Write a sequence for this structure.
């Protein structure tokens, strides 16, 4: 019951040099707690989608935003994305909510 959120972060090569963070946030609710208790961690991606209204966002959303801002290359984002198809959907505007 003490776990309120889970944040993950990766460093992606920035255009022009250096690295920039891309993050993922899961606001933990009842469903996520049940998945964690059962060690069914593969379902946590679905929980991110279900808790978007509470502030959750996926790594692919973060990567898409960085591409739109011109901070990272599309090809680099595909390498780091857990779900490349979701990244493409976000870039086409279909992954919003």
């Amino acid at each position: 019951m003490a776990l309120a959120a889970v944040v993950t972060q990766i460093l992606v090569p920035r255009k022009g040099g250096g690295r920039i963070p891309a993050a993922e946030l899961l606001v933990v609710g009842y469903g996520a707690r049940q998945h964690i208790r059962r060690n069914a961690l593969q379902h946590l991606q679905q929980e991110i989608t279900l808790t978007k209204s509470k502030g959750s966002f996926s790594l692919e959303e973060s990567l898409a935003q960085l591409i739109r801002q011109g901070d990272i290359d599309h090809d680099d984002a595909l390498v780091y994305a857990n779900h490349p198809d979701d990244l493409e959907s976000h870039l086409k505007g279909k992954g919003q909510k």
Q: What stands out?
A: The first strand starts at residue 5 and ends at 13. Residues 5-91 form one domain. The chain has a mean pLDDT of 92.
